[in-house]
Amino acid sequence: MGLPIFKKRIGIDLGTAYTLVYVKGKGIVLNEPSVISVYKNSNRVVDVGRGAKKMIGRAPYYIDVIRPLRYGVISELSYAVLMLKEFLERADVKPGFFSSLETIVCVPSAVSTVDKKAVLDLSYELGSRKAFLIAEPIAAAIGAGMEIFEAIGSFIMDIGGGTSESAIISLGGLVVNEITSVAGDRMNEEIIRFFKSEYKILIGEQMAESIKINLGIVENPTEKFFAKGRDLVTGLPKGIEISASEIRVALLPLVDEIVRVLKETLVKANPEILSDISERGLVLSGGGSLIKGLDTYIRDKLEIPVIFAPDPLFSVINGIATVFKDLSKYLSVLTQMES
User: How far apart are CA 47 and CA 174, in angstroms?
Assistant: First the structure.
């Protein structure tokens, strides 16, 4: 008689900005920035997550700080594997001698076959015997509590660090979906560019992130933030107070691209679906959706209700958790890959 094999099931929201890990029976065990730092000469891991993120722009010459994902896909597979292995070890999530690992990993719905294979390779490197992929907007909709199997159009946009994805879901499938690389990272880059061109000051990625979070796109000249960087003329440290109205001007072209994607999604939908959406509105999820003033701006442009998912930062991972609780119910929304 053979020894029993126990299944260990984990869900991974492998985002450009953050990685979240769910373990069935334990809940969400990890929520860390998708960043790894390694020694250049050996590729030995220095740190991952928050510790590695603090090194961005501060690391000595012999340490590389790497973000293994860009615009929603794995750009550095070997470093993504290293990072995730370190994450799982810290979270004490490893397949035991008498257990097999099953994973669900979230991917953008428009991801290419090559990128799907990269996620598959990563899952195998982690020790998975069976791997499932789930489309990001489907996972976010499930995590937001939307009834995706009903014959009703559900409209969601998930705004992450690397991509913003808009989707209309009905009867368990994607009716229409659109994706853009305009998301949190692009907004940070635009803020950095704005400071260079307008003030001749170079600010870092983390300073740009702080400005985006604190000011958003609110049209309020009295709301200000003190930004610090390097004077590009003198090379010396310099600080400047900037208003929310200025950042709004810098970010609006990018926000308008997000609105364009939402409109494109609606234009492609059938009238019956549009009737559902006019009543139910749009649900926003993902960390990028929490930018101040974004929900109001979208509502004014689309002229439909706009609401936040109950827990926008965790919509995707909560969706994966829900799937694991009733795998047979949700099997049709998964892409299965086995070793």
Answer: 38
